[in-house]
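Annex B. Sample input.
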Amino acid sequence: MYPEPLRNAPDERAVTVHQPGPLAPVPAIATALVPVQPSAVPTVASIVLPDGRVVTGYAVTPTHPAPATAKPAAVSRTAVNIALGGIGFGAVCGGLLLLTTFITALTALITQLITLAAICFGGYAAVQIFKPNHSKSGITFHIRKAVFKRNHFHG
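Annex B, continued. Sample output.
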């Protein structure tokens, strides 16, 4: 399916170099040419180029479009507007439903993340507060056990 890759080095391949040659000068036209419309289009048209080459082409017959068919029964503009309005209303309702679903899911996600952070930080704080003094970390929590005796604060 695919061609085989060339195994030869680039310098081993045969290369043909074509050098451009000078263009032949255009012969001077002594009289002005006047275009003349042909009376009929030939079946095969041939053109002789200035350098002697002949280009041959085939005439193309013009295509005629098919006759127009009868128009279908007309639909009132009101019916079309009602139908398009119904489609638009359905699209808006679906979009709003998706929007409210997305907002609800996002709210639940944020609530879960806040709860997770509170549980993690609260547990870490409780461990640091209730540890013995010699094994505490460098984080300071300014929470003291307050003692109230006879409506007086003893800290």
